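Work Package 4 report. The design task specified in the project plan requires that, given a folded chain encoded as structure tokens, an amino acid be chosen for each position. We show below one input record used in the internal validation round.
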């Protein structure tokens, strides 16, 4: 019998977002929607050139929905999303 495995974090030494995490964050409390969209557009462009995007997508797909808000693996999650948002208050 095999133990369940935790999602594997993409190799940070190869992640294109290193040092640019502020682009990927959820909206700030007073941040204008258009600024979030501009920031997230830049984040999506970073992801497009990331060598570990497939691993990142697998990792995000395994995370509890409440932890997924912002840009991950080239996808926007949250109120300015282009993908159905995951529940932000998922029950444990
Ligand atoms: S796909 Fe995007 S969020 Fe994921 S590691 Fe690469 S740059 Fe970062």
């Amino acid at each position: 019998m095999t133990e369940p495995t935790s999602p594997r974090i993409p190799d940070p030494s190869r992640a294109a977002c290193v040092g640019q995490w502020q682009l990927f964050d959820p909206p700030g409390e007073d941040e204008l929607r258009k600024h979030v969209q501009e920031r997230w557009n830049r984040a999506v462009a970073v992801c497009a050139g990331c060598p570990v995007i497939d691993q990142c997508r697998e990792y995000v797909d395994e995370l509890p929905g409440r932890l997924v808000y912002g840009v991950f693996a080239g996808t926007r999650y949250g109120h300015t999303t282009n993908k159905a948002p995951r529940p932000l208050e998922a029950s444990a």
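Residues 87-92 have pLDDT under 50 and may be disordered. Validation will be extended to a larger panel in the next phase.
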